[in-house]
Amino acid sequence: MEEEKFPIVITAALPAGGTGKTPFIRVYGEWKARQGYKVAMLDFDHQCSLTELYDVFETNKTTLNIFKGGEVEYIPVEENLWLVPSHPNLQYEPARLRAEGTQNIYFLLEDWLYEHEEEIKQFDYLLIDTHPDTDTITKNALAVSSAQIGVVMPTEKSVNAIPKAEQALSDLKRETYDKRHDEARVTCEFLLLGTNIEKVGKNYTKLSKQLVHLIKEDARFVGYIPHKELFAQAMSDEKIPIWEQVNNQLLLKEASNRAFKVVLERVMSNMDQRIGEL
User: Fold this and answer.
1) Residue-by-residue DSSP string for 26-95
2) For the domain bounded by 3-228, which CATH number is listed?
3) Is the pTM for the entire model greater than 0.85?
4) pLDDT band at 241 (very low <50, low <70, confident <90, very high)
């Protein structure tokens, strides 16, 4: 496969649930799609959160097939944006693969991508959502990614997951290092994104203040997204895309909504820049 034709692969992964990985994949995917890029989102979380956000309930040709050597379906969910849905049985794949003694267990996705290069070449970006763990499926995603995005909320559990994710990626690089050719097979870089930062009046809440301090100290953070009801609505039952909301002229009459739009666009642009630097 010609390297310049291969899409940029980004994986949202952090071994802590409910931190905002799925919302990030949706928001960033829609951001790039609205810029005119062709984006495929791959749901590797057996909880199917990203899949259900788009009201997709497909059980055939899902990401499960990637690890079984099968075909997948790219379901159009918005202009320039496609989804490969997940399947609940994906949770059993790590155990099955280990039990069968599968070789090159962390490069099954890489092999599948090269076997399906013609369909993969049509995309500019592959964005992968993962289950909050460091198991085989997540490591397959990281093995082909330019960047791992750890989405962090102002909670102790979320912050404590950062070194766990960092160690897991480091272990993956060490375990897969090609000693024969003296080169790394996994080159994924670890970036962080803060989310759900809250204020009461003009002051941050205690936990949000601590996370903002960490963000300023850790250069791996791309920035942070403040807590906003508009953002929550994009992931709720209404599922109104956040970019549709922040461009709604009626909503933009409110100063706080205009300010949120500026911050969100700045964070997404910063993410573009950091990923481009990789």
Assistant:
1) HHHHHHHHHTT--EEEEEE-TT-HHHHHTT----SS-GGGGGGT-----EEEETTEEEE---GGGGGHHH
2) 3.40.50.300
3) yes
4) confident
